[in-house]
Amino acid sequence: xxxxxxxxxxxxxxxxxxxxxxxxxxxxxxxxxxxxxxxxxxxxxxxxxxxxxxxxxxxxxxxxxxxxxxxxxxxxxxxxxxxxxxxxxxxxxxxxxxxxxxxxxxxxxxxxxxxxxxxxxxxxxxxxxxxxxxxxxxxxxxxxxxxxxxxxxxxxxxxxxxxxxxxxxxxxxxxxxxxxxxxxxxxxxxxxxxxxxxxxxxxxxxxxxxxxxxxxxxxxxxxxxxxxxxxxxxxxxxxxxxxxxxxxxxxxxxxxxxxxxxxxxxxxxxxxxxxxxxxxxxxxxxxxxxxxxxxxxxxxxxxxxxxxxxxxxxxxxxxxxxxxxxxxxxxxxxxxxxxxxxxxxxxxxxxxxxxxxxxxxxxxxxxxxxxxxxxxxxxxxxxxxxxxxxxxxxxxxxxxxxxxxxxxxxxxxxxxxxxx
Length: 420
Ligand code: GAL
Known about the structure:
This protein is of the alpha/beta class. It has helices at residues 3-26, 39-53, 70-81, 95-101, 109-114, 117-120, 123-129, 152-158, 166-178, 190-215, 219-222, 225-238, 250-259, 270-277, 313-326, 329-339, 355-370, 385-400, 406-416, and strands at residues 29-34, 58-63, 88-90, 130-131, 134-135, 137-139, 143-144, 147-150, 182-184, 262-266, 287-290, 298-301, 304-307, 373-375.
């Protein structure tokens, strides 16, 4: 072989090695802490994993089971305190500010600017993702919380009508009960109790009362006649749940409606992810309808990921690639089709989404304009985590107590709302 050929071969070998090294340096790892472990949630989480792997990076899964995320938050706190933060974690709402104040979150302004996030996100969303004007979290979706899920077969069997008001709700519940069907599928965990409570507060009291009492934590509103009505309605719903409800996971309650063992569930549209994962069709196997009295309102719950400050350069690149991918049109579509939520990115193509999602997308825009778009307390969108925890406990204590009167509950919730 001529000297010239040898040199050419050696040069290309060196170039190839350099390219492999460059790619190897770019290929990083992202350890993701999340709590998406149910059927629909897990499929959606897999879509996120595939997106990251598609960019040549490694996904290190750190799933902490427990709907609503309380357990995940506890584990995250212990990891950060011990100096072992994951690179990304499911953190959302005002707690993004609480984590940012600790100085542990990475600045994503470069990714946000390069991908035009300020133009792609509604201000109500963008503002929650920023700390002191800089992006420190990336939003994944928009869940609607104020939904009622119904099994049409069960309703037909009971000769009942899917309710749109609370009076109709109790008429339907009585008919389901008479037909031997559990009227309301419920999981007795405090975030589920509060998910039911806040939809009743919205339906009975209306969006202005909801914001005054549960977002601004106004003591007069919290002690008003309206709150008494809300709590009485709330406790009446409990009489239509089954004796095995305490401690039940939310997706097992959804499965009761899927099987027709129960007629209804008051739950956010991650429940739709369970119906879809079970191969059920909206409008055929299940009905989605606004929680009674809330058809003109939208309780939002926006999942997001915050990225933690890390040193390894390749892993920082992987973090940024993950953040950029989450906001991409392709990911926004495949993730939300599985998760039951709608894309958070404005102008998303909704043609592949079902009627429940299309209604959600329409209402999200309309309620923002009508000022009837409200944050979910149950899902960490509205108040400090300390106040949220105290109020949730007060509400669940009332749901579970046979002795606490409505008047006692009003006072305990108002007191809990003062927690700083
Ligand atoms: C919510 C979360 C949803 C879903 C639900 C049940 O707080 O935002 O994505 O996971 O809990 O776990």
